[in-house]
Amino acid sequence: MWSLAGCLTDMACFYDFHIHSCLSPCADNEMTPATIAGVAALNGLRMAALTDHNSAGNLPVFFDACHAYGVLPVAGIEVESAEAVHVVCLFPRLEQAMDFWRGVVQPAMMPVKNKPAIFGEQNYVDEDDNVIATEPILLITSTALSLEEIAAAARAAGGVPFPAHVDRPSNGLIEILGSVPPEPGFRCVEFNDAANIDRLRGAHPALASMVTLTNSDAHTPDRINEAVNALPLGEPEEDAVLLERLFRCLTDE
Q1: What is the DSSP code string of the chain?
Q2: Which CATH number do you get for residue 218?
Q3: Per-residue pLDDT tens digits for 28-61
Q4: What range defines the domain where residue 210 resides?
């Protein structure tokens, strides 16, 4: 078994695996993929994931920007379940996330049009931060997918799903369901504030057996994590090796 405790002799890798770009209507327009990658580099992060609401549309530009800035990009998407619970899904490869978005998430979206004046703009941008298209369907809605369906589909696509910001009332698993259900089989969990970990573990013992991440859920550049939260994955020369170690840790294998 590959456990987080078993990684402790390796060098720490600072991360932030929950960040929103200008494609998410609740994020600032200045949150372009290039800006996110640049801030992640300035903050000393080794790895960063772009996780827009119900979309992976800005991921290709994000990957290019991260490579330019020396940050290891992780492909992600934050899916809202039919129960209104937010689930972050991370993937080792960009293609996996794009296929998951197009084949699983998009068909399950509600046909609600965005109203930018109310919800915010939903911008696709290029590598120079130019808006090249806007998303007409509102992205901050529940999909038709249940928690179990999201988790199963993400794993089938090669990814790792985990409940987002379980320590927050808005779209948090515990606030909405009142407990940590066993059925999705989550092996990883996200907190927004590390100060809440011990309290919620005491109230919900199932959390103690999960790999714990503390991500920013940043919607503005100043909220992206600095070099505070780390996974002890080591610093191999090959990014592919580091990604493999990351996903083995997230699944506790």
Answers
A1: ---SGGGTTSPPEEEEEEE--TTSTTS-TT--HHHHHHHHHHTT-SEEEE--BT--TTHHHHHHHHHHHT-EEEEEEEEEPTTS-EEEEEESSHHHHHHHIIIIIGGG----B--HHHH---EEE-TTS-EEEE--B-SSS--S--HHHHHHHHHHTT-EEEES-TTSSTT-HHHHHSS--STT---EEEES-GGGHHHHHHH-GGGGGSEEEE---BSSGGGS--TT-EE-----S-HHHHHHHHHHHHTT-
A2: 3.20.20.140
A3: 999 999 999 999 999 999 999 999 999 999 999 9
A4: 5-250
